[in-house]
Amino acid sequence: MSQPDTESRRADDLDSYHVIDCDCHYMESFTDVAEYMDEPWKTKFEGSNFDEKGAKQNLSSFFPFSTGDRQAHGKITREHSSYPDSPETPERIREGMSSIGVDETLLISHLILAGAGTTADDTRQSAFAKAYVEYMSEEVLDPDDGIYGLAPIPYADIDASLEILDRIEGSEAYAGACFVTAGATPPLGNRKYDPLYERCEDMGLPAVFHTGGAGLDEYVRGGYQEMLETHTLGFLESNMSQIVSLVVQGVPEKFPDLDVAFMESGVTYLPSLITRLDEEYLKRPEEAPLLEKEPGKYITDFYYGTQPLEVSADPEFLEKCVDMVGPEQLMYASDYPHWDYDRPTTVIDLPFLSEEEKRGILSENAAEVFGL
Amino acid sequence: MSDGLVEVKPDDAFENGDREFVRVDGTEVGVLQVEGEYYALQNYCLHDGGPVCEGKTHRKLLGEFTEPGKRVERTYTDEECVVSCPWHGWSYDIETGDHLGNGDLSLPTYEVVVEDGVVYVGDLKQP
User: Fold this and answer.
1) Interface test with A, best of B70, B75, B84, B100 (most A CBs within 10 A)
2) Do A250 and B101 touch (CB under 8 A)?
3) What is the 3-state secondary structure (H, E, C) of chain A?
């Protein structure tokens, strides 16, 4: 943080590390995905006048139903990505990875992050997720070149979710299953989702929980005015609610061999959540009868993507947070090309990490979790 | 007192659910008769010093995961084996003193002996 960075210093530093990015977003378009949709969704989409604008964010950047523009109204640009307003092409993935110093990447759908808020009609989500899995598999993912995918799980529709898990079984291209935490009602510890965790556990497939912007503007209550408010609070809340639900309902005890990872809420919220939940648990342990240890100890069994890492925090505080979660549980994540993405240098620059811990966070932990 | 024992009261004066309080080496100890058995625990909750031995004694709720997608089966133990502090609900195994949620937190427990029809608190049990 404190020393001036130059492009060359960053390049020199990055060259000595192998970097796996656990959370990168490919900017697929509805047009590309629709080619793989089942009917009636394919016909409905083609008649919807959506065209490629599904990838655009400008419609929601100004009017009152949105608290703001992801690019902060023109401040943020991406030289090596089409983000935000155009579909991406597979050829540019490597360019984006190289530009920030990533060697292998796990791609998560960009559009599904918003779709998770569509709880009124889960068929729409399932149709998109199935088509996305086919599209990415056919046209984008390239495991031989270190480009993997996380398959979106439309968890509101258990049968469709199981079909997707069947579809990707044995596929080298898909390294995990992705549950978008925003919009999950009931929360993801509910028994209705057990068959999905059971299947993931059987397949040795990590369950990756990714927070998201679906419903962000009114994530708990309406009336926020700035994205600074809703993004700070909503991204945390979406992950926190699912972490608490998973743990209290005993998912780690039901499926002890399931690897669980949470993405995109940084790390400093975790000590707060751990201590808060443990404090309440000591007063009401009978409400979590499956637990064999304090809930916080399950939380620190989960893995966490580092982004957006709170690098501006007091280093002593951040060190304590990393220590409480465990550096062996952390995996570098960029969230590239989104507005608040992190470069691997956010990890390399942390003054309190050992070289071994840096290598673990930058690639080795992820390689083990995802079997890369 | 005899042989390091602290007298509580006659056995036949105890009724189920009764609690008595004595001081053992400067520590207040609660003596409880629960379903015919005697228990003695430190009457000072590890959380914030509440009068834990004045609290509710009750059965322990157990959960069993039978199969994915099914509700966790919740059943109570047959015996009342828990005492909970009335201040905030910290709950301890009445025999071992172990907190139900974290066995590293253990409320000191004491031996209880009945001699010649009188109930006494004996030695501090070693964890």
Assistant:
1) B100
2) no
3) CCCCCCHHHHHHHHHCCCCEEEEEEECCCHHHHHCCCCCCHHHHHHCCCCCCHHHCCHHHCCCCCCCCCCCCCCCCCCCCCCCCCCCCCHHHHHHHHHHHCCCEEEEEECCHHHHCCCCCCHHHHHHHHHHHHHHHHHHHCEHHHCEEEEEECCCCCHHHHHHHHHHHCCCCCEEEEEEECCCCCCCCCCHHHHHHHHHHHHHCCCEEEECCCCCHHHCCCCCCCCHHHHHHHHHHHHHHHHHHHHHHCCHHHHCCCCCEEEECCCCCHHHHHHHHHHHHHHHCHHHCCCCCCCHHHHHCCCEEECCCCCCCCCHHHHHHHHHHHCHHHEECCCCCCCCCCCCCHHHHCCCCCCHHHHHHHHHHHHHHHHCC
